[in-house]
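Exercise 3.2. Students should predict the tertiary structure of the chain below and write it as structure tokens, then compare their answer with the key that follows.

Predict this chain's 3D structure.
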Amino acid sequence: MMYNAVKNRYDRMKYRRCGNSGLMLPFVSLGLWYNYGNRESFENMENMLTTAFDNGITHFDIANNYGPPAGSAEENFGRIMKKELGQYRDQLIVSSKAGYGMWEGPYGDFGSRKYLMASIDQSLKRTGLEYFDIFYSHRPDPDTPIEETMGALADIVKQGKALYVGISNYNPEQTRAAVDCLDQLGVHCLIHQHSYSMFNRTSDHGLFDVLSEKGVGSIAFSPLAQGQLTSRYIDGIPSDSRISKGYYLRKEDITEEKLRKIIALNNLAKERGATLAQLALLWVMRRPEMTTVLIGASKPEQITENAAVAFLPPLSVEEINSINLILGV
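Answer key:
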């Protein structure tokens, strides 16, 4: 498979500094939540990853339980790294996570030291990597002391299994406690990964304030609300869509009211010569606290479309006001 030389990647992507760290992340990153499991086409996975790299996306985000089945996304990513991208390892940021159910019994879920330590070793083995650039606690554990979970993350850095650590799905209070705990252990929390989109503004209510105060970077997942903030559902439900495949989105989620909003947003995007997906990504990245936005894809052309958002003009005040009016906020 042929793709452009890595030396030109900076011409194809913009980068932002991650919090107050020295690490730069691309404006757009690629997540491997779905479409990288064993029931999908390996050739398509390969095309998507190399297309992403060819468009300047140098950050790939996975987790131990991604698939399906769990673990298969890491395995397939490792195969593609070995075949295509391994020679560029030092030009890539690869992240993984642990925190959701991975194996049976009391040691394969949430945030105990036992689970995190075992999980990162398994993930490194599946991917064939010597280290992760970023390793996350995928969700807070209500039954494990924060000191234990953050202590495990700190030791993962000190053991050289990850260069940086982050947290995901933590609320503002949990985020503050986690960051403070890591600081006491001499390891900075690099980044917080959270769900954020026009349809999910929970992060506006306190989380960004904490991240800004603490110098923590921010990466948004589900910025397109699992495909709702695209034109895919305007004319019906495609056979290859998340709804058709049963991927965390149901037909009932696309209500008449929501469809009216989607159509209005799509028309607004057309006025600026963009797609609805690009408009939605620009909306997420309008916030100065955002480091990068995490896209998913089922086709290489979706990645090319979304990567191009890095060089589109930012949203104007008038456009943001129009979006708020459409959404009724």
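Discussion points: The first helix runs from residue 42 to 54. The first strand starts at residue 15 and ends at 17.
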